[in-house]
Amino acid sequence: MVKIVGVRFRNAGKVYYFDPKGYKIEPGDHVIVETARGVEYGTVIGPVRSVPEETIVQPLKGVIRVATPDDDARAQRNRVKERDALKICQEKIIKHGLEMKLIDAEYTFDNNKVLFYFTADGRIDFRELVKDLAAVFKMRIELRQIGVRDETKILGGIGICGRILCCNSYLSEFAPVSIKMAKEQNLSLNPTKISGVCGRLMCCLKNEEDTYEYLNNRLPGIGDTVTTLDGRKGEVHSVNVLRQKVKLLVDVDDEKEIQEYDVSELKFKPKRRREKGGKGEKIDRSGKDNSVDKELRELEALEKKEGKSKLDED
């Protein structure tokens, strides 16, 4: 067994694991560690724990030391310097006439490098900008282009639910999200209803996906013919996924009547409703707005293109 401790370098950022090296470390403590970018200042997010050695990706770098008051002060000074660096970089961007939106600046703890995060519609030739910034800061300069989801993660905000954005508060990695999840949960397919602040599909669509898949598997499809426990047959008119209720169109005294049954009171062969829109599957789009349909496909294409968060590549 090997002892490890989880360390996070950014708010709601990815967790990296290090060898505690015998230090007494508690959650919330600050530590100095060595990373691929150099010496960094991070926050411990969990207690020291033991894991099987085969689960560790070697080599496992160790904690250099628990942060001292001087280290805390230095990290605080870096935060102040980052605000000044943002202003300088923004002025240089305007000077060079580059079509890029500056998002954030970050100093490494040892002040060996300063990173600037930006968004842009396409590729940007920022070679002259880097030369100007290097002349000002006298250190290594790195400009990193990020996606709109990463931009929102850095800047933060309030979601339509009224809470702080998940990606900015606790979500360390972006999970794949698709239109299929909204369909599974019977949500409105209006892009403005299922898109987050970033303009991409809401991350929270993933939260209840497994539950809805399980509940939908227990229900008949709309239009299916099912049999009640008393032998009466009816056509499924609608279903309530969360309550597990089914409304049937049944014959009563030579008239059609809608009656509600619990799913346990019905006999049918459970099957998945196919509305994925994947290869080999068809979607009945009759009555739908083509412009909305096109926008949904564009949203899903952007999700796949953006892929893995660039902030977690380190």
What would you say this structure looks like, in words?
By secondary structure, the chain is α+β, with helices and mostly antiparallel strands. It has helices spanning 69-96, 127-137, 148-155, 166-169, 179-184, 191-194, 209-217, 290-306, and strands at residues 2-8, 15-18, 30-35, 38-44, 49-51, 63-66, 101-107, 113-119, 140-145, 225-228, 233-240, 245-252, 255-262, 266-267. β1 and β2 form a beta hairpin. α1 (69-96) crosses α2 (127-137).
Key traits:
single chain; 314 residues; alpha+beta; five-stranded antiparallel sheet; 8 helices; 14 strands
- Low-confidence sequence ranges: 273-289
Q: N- to C-terminal separation? A: 26 Å
Rg from Cα? 27 Å
What letter string, H or E per element, gives the SSE order?
EEEEEEHEEHEHHHHHEEEEEH
Question: How many individual β-strands?
Answer: 14
Main β sheet profile:
6 strands, antiparallel
Topology record:
Blueprint (H helix, E strand, L loop, with lengths): L1 E7 L6 E4 L11 E6 L2 E7 L4 E3 L11 E4 L2 H28 L4 E7 L5 E7 L7 H11 L2 E6 L2 H8 L10 H4 L9 H6 L6 H4 L14 H9 L7 E4 L4 E8 L4 E8 L2 E8 L3 E2 L22 H17 L8
Helix pairs in contact: 1-2
